[in-house]
Amino acid sequence: MLKFIECSRDAMQGWSRMIPATEKMEYLNALLRVGFDTLDFGSFVSAKAIPQMADTAEVLAGLEPSGTKLLAIVANVRGAEEAVLHERIQYLGFPFSISETFQIRNTNKTIPEALEQVTAIQELCIKNGKQLVIYISMGFGNPYGDPYSPEVALEWADRFAGMHIPIISLADTVGVAEPAGIAALFSALVPAYPQVEFGAHFHSTPQAWEEKIAAAWDNGCRRFDSAIRGIGGCPMAQDDLVGNIATENLLRFCASRGIASGLDANAFGEAMVLSDRVFRH
């Protein structure tokens, strides 16, 4: 079975219209009825940097009980300290860029400083019964001219695995990944670290999504991030955003391969309809 991680937070965080907390609650509750494995629902980050996520704690309080696990993004120890106080949050996600330029743009920290944050956040997670998800941002290259090779991504994955971080997601932050590079990384990582769950967080043009998903799936990846209608992208990366993989396309991929999705089709249809209202300008 393919594991669906619905990234509503990624879709909402850069949206031009401020979405009221009540609308976020309604949309997230609709998503919680679909049966996704995990909902990336919000973030505990600077309200100045990402004003759309300033109401994450308020929104969390309005979410209905569900078997779907909740993931919140944090960018530093302060955010992690706030996130771990919430019993319903199971996962804390940290974007760790292997591009120095992007790490500074995204979290205002150098790579060594970000690694110190990861160490402290992992300790917080263990102490509070949470799990840390590391996103290796710019995991397939970067647009800044910073040094990159697949070996760099592999070295960082090895380092995080050695820190007993349970989930590592390779993030194609600006949509530059190609099938050969995706296949090379997942075919090396999945068998080498059976104790780690490796995921894929791809941003893509509408034309390239299927080849990226297929390359990851065919090389052992079973955890995929997506967002309804492909909305989203990282607002700290560049001006011309490349959107998320559309969840409906991921469902189409499952159907073409005979892969069980485990999702409630009626609930998914209702969430799709609601998304038109939430993501209006």
From TrEMBL:
<keyword id="KW-0456">Lyase</keyword>
<keyword id="KW-0479">Metal-binding</keyword>
<protein>
    <submittedName>
        <fullName>Hydroxymethylglutaryl-CoA lyase</fullName>
    </submittedName>
</protein>
<dbReference type="Pfam" id="PF00682">
    <property type="entry name" value="HMGL-like"/>
</dbReference>
<feature type="domain" description="Pyruvate carboxyltransferase">
    <location>
        <begin position="1"/>
        <end position="269"/>
    </location>
</feature>
<dbReference type="InterPro" id="IPR013785">
    <property type="entry name" value="Aldolase_TIM"/>
</dbReference>
<comment type="similarity">
    <text>Belongs to the HMG-CoA lyase family.</text>
</comment>
<dbReference type="InterPro" id="IPR043594">
    <property type="entry name" value="HMGL"/>
</dbReference>
<dbReference type="InterPro" id="IPR000891">
    <property type="entry name" value="PYR_CT"/>
</dbReference>
<dbReference type="GO" id="GO:0016829">
    <property type="term" value="F:lyase activity"/>
</dbReference>
